[in-house]
Amino acid sequence: MSVSLSQIIEAAGLEHEATLTVARATADEPPITTGRLVVLIDDRLKLTDALHHYPSDHPLRVIDTTFRLREATVSDIPDELAPDAVALVLEPILLFDVRQAPDGVRGVMDRLRDPVDGCPWDNAQTHESLRPHLLEETYEVLEAIAAGDPAELCEELGDLMMQVVLHAKLAEQAGEFTLDDVSEGIRAKLVRRHPHVFGDGTADTPKLVEGAWERLKARERPHRESVIDGVPRTLPALARAQSILGRAERNGFGRDAALSASFGERLLDLVQEARELDVSAEDALRDALGAFERGVRAQEQEQRARPA
Predict the structure, then answer these.
(1) Which of 118, 130, 227, 266 has its CA at a distance of 20 to 30 angstroms from the CA of residue 102?
(2) What is the 3-state secondary structure (H, E, C) of the chain?
(3) What integer pLDDT is reported at residue 63 of this predicted model?
Protein backbone atom coordinates (compact mmCIF):
# COMPACT_ATOMS: atom_id res chain seq x y z
CA MET A 1 0.00 0.00 0.00
CA SER A 2 1.43 3.35 -1.03
CA VAL A 3 1.33 6.18 1.51
CA SER A 4 1.96 9.83 0.65
CA LEU A 5 3.95 12.31 2.70
CA SER A 6 0.86 14.49 3.19
CA GLN A 7 -1.01 11.51 4.67
CA ILE A 8 1.85 10.81 7.07
CA ILE A 9 1.99 14.44 8.19
CA GLU A 10 -1.77 14.53 8.68
CA ALA A 11 -1.76 11.25 10.64
CA ALA A 12 0.94 12.63 12.94
CA GLY A 13 -1.02 15.86 13.48
CA LEU A 14 1.80 17.97 12.06
CA GLU A 15 -0.13 19.98 9.45
CA HIS A 16 0.36 23.20 11.39
CA GLU A 17 3.88 22.51 12.64
CA ALA A 18 5.91 25.71 12.21
CA THR A 19 9.21 23.84 11.81
CA LEU A 20 9.16 20.38 10.28
CA THR A 21 12.08 18.41 8.86
CA VAL A 22 11.50 15.42 6.56
CA ALA A 23 14.33 12.98 5.80
CA ARG A 24 14.78 9.49 4.46
CA ALA A 25 16.31 6.71 6.52
CA THR A 26 19.18 6.57 4.03
CA ALA A 27 20.09 10.23 4.72
CA ASP A 28 22.46 10.93 7.62
CA GLU A 29 20.69 14.00 8.99
CA PRO A 30 22.10 15.92 12.01
CA PRO A 31 19.88 15.99 15.12
CA ILE A 32 17.15 18.64 15.01
CA THR A 33 16.84 21.13 17.88
CA THR A 34 13.57 22.81 16.83
CA GLY A 35 10.36 21.38 15.45
CA ARG A 36 9.91 17.69 14.69
CA LEU A 37 11.65 15.25 12.38
CA VAL A 38 9.78 12.81 10.11
CA VAL A 39 11.95 9.89 8.98
CA LEU A 40 10.56 8.06 5.94
CA ILE A 41 11.44 4.38 6.12
CA ASP A 42 12.89 3.75 2.68
CA ASP A 43 15.45 1.27 4.04
CA ARG A 44 14.81 -0.53 7.34
CA LEU A 45 18.46 -1.57 7.65
CA LYS A 46 19.58 2.06 7.52
CA LEU A 47 17.32 3.21 10.37
CA THR A 48 19.97 2.62 13.05
CA ASP A 49 22.39 4.87 11.15
CA ALA A 50 19.69 7.50 10.68
CA LEU A 51 19.03 7.65 14.43
CA HIS A 52 22.58 7.36 15.76
CA HIS A 53 22.66 11.04 16.76
CA TYR A 54 19.89 10.46 19.30
CA PRO A 55 20.13 8.93 22.82
CA SER A 56 18.76 5.41 23.17
CA ASP A 57 15.83 6.59 25.32
CA HIS A 58 14.85 9.44 22.97
CA PRO A 59 11.06 9.27 22.33
CA LEU A 60 9.54 8.75 18.89
CA ARG A 61 6.29 7.65 17.27
CA VAL A 62 5.94 4.95 14.62
CA ILE A 63 3.35 5.39 11.84
CA ASP A 64 2.11 2.38 9.88
CA THR A 65 0.14 2.03 6.64
CA THR A 66 -3.17 2.27 8.52
CA PHE A 67 -1.97 5.57 10.06
CA ARG A 68 -1.86 4.22 13.58
CA LEU A 69 0.72 5.83 15.88
CA ARG A 70 2.72 3.78 18.38
CA GLU A 71 4.94 5.29 21.09
CA ALA A 72 8.51 3.95 21.14
CA THR A 73 12.13 4.96 21.77
CA VAL A 74 15.26 4.91 19.61
CA SER A 75 16.41 1.68 21.30
CA ASP A 76 13.26 -0.07 19.95
CA ILE A 77 14.33 0.55 16.35
CA PRO A 78 14.56 -1.44 14.14
CA ASP A 79 14.14 -4.68 16.15
CA GLU A 80 10.58 -4.02 17.29
CA LEU A 81 9.42 -2.30 14.11
CA ALA A 82 6.26 -3.72 12.54
CA PRO A 83 6.52 -4.80 8.86
CA ASP A 84 3.97 -2.16 7.80
CA ALA A 85 5.78 0.80 9.46
CA VAL A 86 6.26 3.68 6.99
CA ALA A 87 7.65 6.57 9.05
CA LEU A 88 9.00 7.71 12.39
CA VAL A 89 8.28 11.04 14.09
CA LEU A 90 10.96 12.33 16.49
CA GLU A 91 10.77 15.15 19.01
CA PRO A 92 13.58 17.74 18.86
CA ILE A 93 16.70 16.90 20.80
CA LEU A 94 17.25 19.15 23.81
CA LEU A 95 19.87 21.90 23.58
CA PHE A 96 22.30 20.19 25.96
CA ASP A 97 21.06 16.64 25.43
CA VAL A 98 24.60 15.60 24.51
CA ARG A 99 25.12 11.99 23.49
CA GLN A 100 24.92 9.43 26.26
CA ALA A 101 27.56 7.22 24.66
CA PRO A 102 30.59 6.57 26.94
CA ASP A 103 32.68 8.95 24.84
CA GLY A 104 30.03 11.70 24.75
CA VAL A 105 30.17 14.72 27.07
CA ARG A 106 27.50 13.33 29.38
CA GLY A 107 29.16 9.91 29.45
CA VAL A 108 32.58 11.40 30.21
CA MET A 109 31.14 13.48 33.05
CA ASP A 110 29.37 10.42 34.48
CA ARG A 111 32.71 8.62 34.51
CA LEU A 112 34.58 11.56 36.07
CA ARG A 113 31.99 11.83 38.87
CA ASP A 114 31.88 8.09 39.52
CA PRO A 115 32.49 7.81 43.30
CA VAL A 116 34.60 4.65 42.88
CA ASP A 117 36.41 4.84 39.54
CA GLY A 118 36.13 8.57 38.84
CA CYS A 119 38.55 11.48 39.15
CA PRO A 120 39.47 12.58 42.72
CA TRP A 121 39.46 16.26 41.70
CA ASP A 122 36.05 16.13 40.00
CA ASN A 123 34.56 14.15 42.87
CA ALA A 124 35.79 16.74 45.37
CA GLN A 125 34.03 19.65 43.66
CA THR A 126 30.92 21.47 44.86
CA HIS A 127 28.90 24.32 43.36
CA GLU A 128 30.80 26.69 45.68
CA SER A 129 34.28 25.36 44.85
CA LEU A 130 33.57 25.72 41.12
CA ARG A 131 32.63 29.41 41.33
CA PRO A 132 36.11 30.79 40.51
CA HIS A 133 36.47 28.32 37.62
CA LEU A 134 33.12 29.38 36.15
CA LEU A 135 34.16 33.03 36.37
CA GLU A 136 37.57 32.33 34.83
CA GLU A 137 36.09 30.34 31.94
CA THR A 138 33.59 33.15 31.27
CA TYR A 139 36.37 35.71 31.02
CA GLU A 140 38.37 33.41 28.74
CA VAL A 141 35.35 33.27 26.39
CA LEU A 142 35.27 37.09 26.42
CA GLU A 143 38.99 37.21 25.58
CA ALA A 144 38.49 34.78 22.69
CA ILE A 145 35.68 36.98 21.33
CA ALA A 146 37.90 40.06 21.64
CA ALA A 147 40.73 38.24 19.84
CA GLY A 148 38.40 37.37 16.94
CA ASP A 149 39.78 33.82 16.80
CA PRO A 150 37.01 31.28 15.93
CA ALA A 151 39.13 28.24 16.89
CA GLU A 152 39.96 29.74 20.29
CA LEU A 153 36.32 30.75 20.83
CA CYS A 154 35.16 27.22 20.00
CA GLU A 155 37.58 25.76 22.56
CA GLU A 156 36.67 28.26 25.28
CA LEU A 157 32.94 27.76 24.74
CA GLY A 158 33.59 24.04 25.24
CA ASP A 159 35.32 24.77 28.56
CA LEU A 160 32.36 26.93 29.60
CA MET A 161 29.91 24.22 28.53
CA MET A 162 31.85 21.74 30.68
CA GLN A 163 31.12 23.95 33.69
CA VAL A 164 27.38 23.77 32.92
CA VAL A 165 27.53 19.98 32.50
CA LEU A 166 29.50 19.55 35.75
CA HIS A 167 27.16 21.78 37.79
CA ALA A 168 24.18 19.86 36.39
CA LYS A 169 25.82 16.54 37.29
CA LEU A 170 26.37 17.74 40.88
CA ALA A 171 22.70 18.67 41.11
CA GLU A 172 21.61 15.35 39.56
CA GLN A 173 23.63 13.40 42.13
CA ALA A 174 22.01 15.49 44.88
CA GLY A 175 18.55 14.68 43.49
CA GLU A 176 17.83 18.33 42.62
CA PHE A 177 17.71 18.64 38.82
CA THR A 178 19.36 17.23 35.70
CA LEU A 179 21.05 18.51 32.55
CA ASP A 180 17.80 17.87 30.67
CA ASP A 181 15.96 20.06 33.20
CA VAL A 182 18.44 22.87 32.55
CA SER A 183 18.00 22.48 28.80
CA GLU A 184 14.21 22.29 28.93
CA GLY A 185 14.06 25.28 31.28
CA ILE A 186 15.94 27.59 28.92
CA ARG A 187 14.08 26.21 25.87
CA ALA A 188 10.72 26.96 27.47
CA LYS A 189 11.89 30.40 28.64
CA LEU A 190 13.12 31.37 25.16
CA VAL A 191 9.77 30.41 23.64
CA ARG A 192 7.83 32.12 26.44
CA ARG A 193 9.87 35.34 26.24
CA HIS A 194 9.61 35.58 22.43
CA PRO A 195 5.85 35.78 21.74
CA HIS A 196 6.64 37.87 18.64
CA VAL A 197 8.40 34.81 17.17
CA PHE A 198 6.53 31.83 18.63
CA GLY A 199 3.14 33.44 19.31
CA ASP A 200 0.93 36.30 18.21
CA GLY A 201 2.95 39.12 19.80
CA THR A 202 4.51 41.97 17.83
CA ALA A 203 7.94 43.55 18.31
CA ASP A 204 9.95 44.70 15.30
CA THR A 205 12.83 46.57 16.96
CA PRO A 206 15.40 45.49 19.57
CA LYS A 207 14.07 48.07 22.06
CA LEU A 208 10.51 46.76 21.77
CA VAL A 209 11.82 43.24 22.31
CA GLU A 210 13.71 44.37 25.44
CA GLY A 211 10.61 46.07 26.81
CA ALA A 212 8.44 42.99 26.22
CA TRP A 213 11.12 40.79 27.81
CA GLU A 214 11.12 42.94 30.98
CA ARG A 215 7.31 42.88 31.23
CA LEU A 216 7.19 39.11 30.82
CA LYS A 217 9.98 38.67 33.36
CA ALA A 218 8.12 40.83 35.88
CA ARG A 219 5.02 38.66 35.44
CA GLU A 220 7.00 35.47 35.95
CA ARG A 221 8.75 36.77 39.08
CA PRO A 222 6.12 38.68 41.06
CA HIS A 223 8.07 38.17 44.31
CA ARG A 224 10.71 40.68 43.24
CA GLU A 225 10.22 44.06 44.92
CA SER A 226 12.19 46.11 42.40
CA VAL A 227 12.87 46.07 38.66
CA ILE A 228 16.59 46.05 39.46
CA ASP A 229 16.42 43.00 41.72
CA GLY A 230 18.44 40.12 40.36
CA VAL A 231 21.37 42.07 38.87
CA PRO A 232 24.34 40.12 40.30
CA ARG A 233 26.39 42.06 42.82
CA THR A 234 29.44 40.10 41.70
CA LEU A 235 29.39 41.77 38.26
CA PRO A 236 32.22 44.25 37.62
CA ALA A 237 31.04 47.74 38.58
CA LEU A 238 30.84 49.06 35.01
CA ALA A 239 28.87 46.08 33.74
CA ARG A 240 26.53 46.17 36.76
CA ALA A 241 25.95 49.91 36.33
CA GLN A 242 25.07 49.42 32.67
CA SER A 243 22.65 46.61 33.49
CA ILE A 244 20.92 48.57 36.28
CA LEU A 245 20.65 51.73 34.14
CA GLY A 246 19.14 49.67 31.34
CA ARG A 247 16.54 47.97 33.54
CA ALA A 248 15.64 51.28 35.19
CA GLU A 249 15.23 53.07 31.87
CA ARG A 250 13.12 50.29 30.33
CA ASN A 251 10.78 50.52 33.30
CA GLY A 252 10.38 54.30 33.31
CA PHE A 253 13.10 55.24 35.80
CA GLY A 254 15.53 57.09 33.56
CA ARG A 255 18.44 58.99 35.05
CA ASP A 256 19.35 62.61 34.27
CA ALA A 257 23.04 63.28 33.69
CA ALA A 258 24.46 65.23 36.64
CA LEU A 259 26.80 68.02 35.54
CA SER A 260 29.69 69.02 37.83
CA ALA A 261 28.94 66.01 40.01
CA SER A 262 31.26 63.71 41.94
CA PHE A 263 33.80 61.50 40.20
CA GLY A 264 31.50 58.48 40.63
CA GLU A 265 28.56 60.37 39.10
CA ARG A 266 30.71 61.36 36.13
CA LEU A 267 31.63 57.70 35.62
CA LEU A 268 27.94 56.83 35.74
CA ASP A 269 27.33 59.53 33.11
CA LEU A 270 29.83 57.76 30.84
CA VAL A 271 28.08 54.45 31.40
CA GLN A 272 24.78 56.09 30.51
CA GLU A 273 26.38 57.52 27.37
CA ALA A 274 27.60 54.02 26.49
CA ARG A 275 24.03 52.74 26.79
CA GLU A 276 22.75 55.49 24.51
CA LEU A 277 25.43 54.56 21.94
CA ASP A 278 24.58 50.85 22.37
CA VAL A 279 28.16 50.17 23.46
CA SER A 280 29.31 47.91 26.31
CA ALA A 281 31.12 50.18 28.77
CA GLU A 282 33.02 47.19 30.16
CA ASP A 283 34.20 46.08 26.70
CA ALA A 284 35.00 49.63 25.61
CA LEU A 285 37.22 50.15 28.66
CA ARG A 286 38.82 46.72 28.17
CA ASP A 287 39.54 47.50 24.48
CA ALA A 288 40.98 50.93 25.29
CA LEU A 289 43.12 49.44 28.04
CA GLY A 290 44.30 46.73 25.65
CA ALA A 291 45.36 49.37 23.11
CA PHE A 292 47.21 51.27 25.85
CA GLU A 293 48.95 48.07 26.98
CA ARG A 294 50.06 47.32 23.42
CA GLY A 295 51.43 50.86 23.12
CA VAL A 296 53.43 50.51 26.33
CA ARG A 297 54.86 47.17 25.22
CA ALA A 298 55.78 48.59 21.80
CA GLN A 299 57.62 51.50 23.42
CA GLU A 300 59.43 49.12 25.77
CA GLN A 301 60.48 47.01 22.79
CA GLU A 302 61.77 50.10 20.97
CA GLN A 303 63.77 51.11 24.04
CA ARG A 304 65.33 47.66 24.29
CA ALA A 305 66.24 47.75 20.60
CA ARG A 306 68.12 51.04 20.91
CA PRO A 307 71.88 50.78 21.20
CA ALA A 308 73.17 51.36 24.72
Answers:
(1) 130
(2) CCCCHHHHHHHCCCCCCCCEEEEECCCCCCCCCCCEEEEECCCHHHHHHHCCCCCCCCEEEEEECCCCEEEEEHHHCCCCCCCCEEEEEECCCCCCCCCCCCCCHHHHHHHHCCCCCCCHHHHHCCCCCCHHHHHHHHHHHHHHHHHCCHHHHHHHHHHHHHHHHHHHHHHHHCCCCCHHHHHHHHHHHHHHCCHHHHCCCCCCCHHHHHHHHHHHHHHHCCCCCCCCCCCCCCCCHHHHHHHHHHHHHHCCCCCCCCCCCCHHHHHHHHHHHHHHCCCCHHHHHHHHHHHHHHHHHHHHHHHHHCCC
(3) 92
